[in-house]
């Protein structure tokens, strides 16, 4: 049975959405095409009608995950326009976000995997990282003639590193202490 173009486009978007979540949970190599397509409610046979390769899907799913993450930052900031950076810090450096494997930060979940991928996947991550830096730069604003770009880079690096480290330790107290220390450092860096 033939699938209409509209249905094929919807199926493609479904696969990208499912892949963006499953890749964050299991890594790029942690899930095969059969399980991925099954998770999208489709058969494996339809994959190559939608994507040139798994790497093509990885790049698309990475873009989608990073766009979603950037949107979450903007949404958190919009909920607290008086302190947008504080809202992002509270959301991002939280125990809840640390536990969000499927919907959490793709930079944390897939950064090491992305470093071993081809140029299309790296380009998706680069664009996503630049978008995060842009959002942070707007929150920080210029202080005493200092460029917000370098400060935003340090803050993003601290936040990503803290969530990463908090996810790889077994001790819940240490995990929380890593997040708490990052909150202090990020607030100090932003205020400096």
Q: Your description of this structure?
A:
- The chain is mainly alpha-helical and 192 residues long.
- 76% of the residues lie in helices and 0% in strands.
- It has helices at 5-26, 33-39, 47-50, 54-79, 84-92, 95-99, 106-115, 119-140, 148-168, 172-191.
- The N and C termini lie far apart (63 Å).
- GO terms for molecular function: DNA binding.
- Residues 9-69 form the HTH tetR-type domain.
- Keywords: DNA-binding, Transcription, Transcription regulation.
CATH secondary-structure class: Mainly Alpha
Number of distinct beta strands: 0
- Show unreliable segments: none
Q: Into which percent range does the helicity of residues fall?
A: over 70%
CATH homology group: Tetracycline Repressor, domain 2
Q: Order of helices and strands, N to C?
A: HHHHHHHHHH
Strand content: under 5%
CATH architecture: Orthogonal Bundle
Domain count: the total is 1
Radius of gyration, Cα only, in angstroms?
A: 18 Å
- Per the principal axes of the C-alpha atoms, what is the gross shape? elongated
- Please tally the helical runs, counting DSSP H or I stretches of 4 or more residues: 10
Terminal Cα span: 63 Å
- The name CATH uses for the topology is Tetracycline Repressor, domain 2
Main sheet: strands, sense, barrel? none
The helix-and-strand class reads mainly alpha
How much is the average pLDDT?
92
């Amino acid at each position: 049975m033939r699938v209409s173009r509209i249905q094929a486009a919807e199926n493609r978007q479904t696969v990208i959405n499912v892949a963006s979540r499953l890749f964050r949970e299991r890594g790029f190599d942690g899930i095969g095409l059969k399980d991925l397509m099954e998770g999208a409610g489709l058969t494996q046979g339809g994959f190559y009608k939608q994507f040139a390769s798994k790497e093509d899907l990885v790049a698309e799913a990475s873009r989608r995950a990073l766009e979603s993450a950037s949107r979450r930052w903007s949404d958190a900031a919009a909920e607290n326009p008086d302190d947008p950076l504080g809202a992002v810090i509270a959301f991002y450096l939280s125990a809840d976000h640390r536990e969000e494997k499927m919907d959490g930060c793709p930079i944390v979940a897939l950064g090491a995997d992305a470093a071993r991928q081809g140029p299309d996947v790296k380009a998706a991550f680069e664009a996503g990282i630049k978008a995060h830096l842009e959002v942070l730069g707007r929150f920080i604003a210029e202080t005493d003639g200092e460029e917000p770009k370098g400060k935003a880079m340090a803050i993003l690096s601290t936040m990503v590193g803290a969530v990463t480290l908090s996810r790889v330790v077994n001790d819940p107290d240490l995990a929380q202490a890593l997040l708490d220390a990052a909150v202090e450092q990020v607030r100090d860096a932003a205020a400096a």
